Amino acid sequence: MNGYQLRIDVEGCADPIWRRIKIPAIISFEDLHQLIQTLFGFEDYHLYEFRIKELGIWIPGGETDIENQINDDVEIVDNLERIADYLKKEMVIYYHYDFGDDWQLLITVEQELEGVEHYPVVVEFCGNNLIEDCGGIERYQEIILSRDDLDINFDLEDINSCLSLLGVDEILNNSPLKNEFIEILEQLKELVKKREFTDNQVIKLVSNQTTYWVILKTLEGYVIELFETYNDLLEGFYNLANEGINNAFCNCWTILLSEQELDFDVALDEDNYLAAFRNEAGYIPCLLEVEEARVILELLKEFANGIKEDQNRSESDEIIEIYVEDGKFKESAIFVHEPQIDLNRYDFGYLGEHELETKRENTERLCVDVVCLPMTNTDKTNELNVYAVIAGESDYLIKEVDFPSLQIIGEALIDGLLEYANRYGKPQRIVVNNLNVLFLVLNFISQYDIDYFEDEITLEIEGAIMDAFGLETADEAFNDPFIQELLEQLDGKSEEEIEEKINEILANMELLN
Prior knowledge:
Layout (H helix, E strand, L loop, with lengths): L2 E8 L7 E7 L4 H11 L8 E5 L4 E4 L14 E2 L15 E6 L5 E11 L7 E6 L10 H10 L9 H8 L14 H17 L5 E7 L3 E8 L3 E7 L2 H9 L13 E7 L15 E6 L6 E2 L2 H20 L8 E8 L2 E9 L24 E2 L4 E8 L3 H4 L2 E8 L4 E6 L4 H19 L1 E2 L1 E4 L2 H13 L3 E4 L3 H11 L5 H5 L2 H10 L4 H18 L1
Parallel strand pairs: 4-5, 9-15, 17-21, 22-23
Antiparallel strand pairs: 1-2, 1-7, 2-8, 3-4, 3-6, 6-7, 9-10, 10-11, 11-12, 12-13, 13-14, 15-16, 18-19, 19-20
Helix pairs in contact: 4-6, 8-9
């Protein structure tokens, strides 16, 4: 793994305090900030910034006030940007921490390295740790001269032991392996184009291991989803009304084979047509790590060998079974496929924290769903907040799901339904458009003779979410720049054109869900 050797000096101290460290090049400026906090005994209580004067860039951290410090001569760079895109040998970076105590550190790029560990390693140091909230460097020097009970010794072995836990995995997009990935994806793109289908094809690939593949045809090109198990295929594809990714339930790998340039900067190829992601329930899609990508690459090669020789053309209610042996196509067949749902997988015997206490009937349309929303630190962890949403015609109820799993999500849905029913009356029926949700509450609604039907519920669920998280009035919604832009686009359009545009937006929103 490529990396750097840095020397980090504390400025303004009478006796030298510095650390020499080797780091992987793929870390971000935020990671570098966290590393400096560890190296000097800080506790990350305050704001920070990096400046690289020779590049004219400023990297503000956390909630640093950007508006009042904008300078036309300075380019603002996000603190999640990789340092490798900016650092080079002999460059000097200025690090400023705690704008009150005013700690100033100087970072010198001493060497560009190859073969570094995937975690930081301190190779040399001088001086003790610093003290958080002590008043800055001058006050620090006074304190260490007047007291001998301070626990500020720098323990090299202990620090390196801690740093070994901060390893970063190299991602495919920054690895030489991506060239092999691009080659197989370009081959797959041509093979998929030759297959005759209008919507999707589902393929069961039997080789050293059995995997499940869904090829989706889109306006932009093709999407391939790889599922490790049949249950993953059910929960991430067959159980979803919109046949798209649902971050609360979907576990798969997604490959984009676009015919148009992708509008994000995480594509594998320079032309921005090919991309690969991992989808894990409860997280936003993330780029593949190299070790993971090696496994997926071999599966993609087997898949390519399988569909290259397969001549079957399936309908939406069929599945193609392809056998590959020693990397070579053996045989294939096509079957009508009725999803085999194991309802026991969704039934955990939970009927609610409380009993249904009312005999009143509620005839309103009651929509039930599970949604994922970003957390304040999603940009760092990829983790999402998961919510069970009960949306009626007169009110709604939203319950956050901690540590989401099928069981915990199911319990949150059932508790939400019970609470809503005890407040407004037992619903005659619930409305769902995600069968995972239905199966999780099926035993509960059967117990209380509550019916169900499938229908589109996006407007009700999104309305509840918008209201719960701050868009309480229509005026607030119309102040949203997206809404304003949409209104401008729809101005003067016919009813048919307006309906077509709104349906297009809703479809895109479902794909992003």
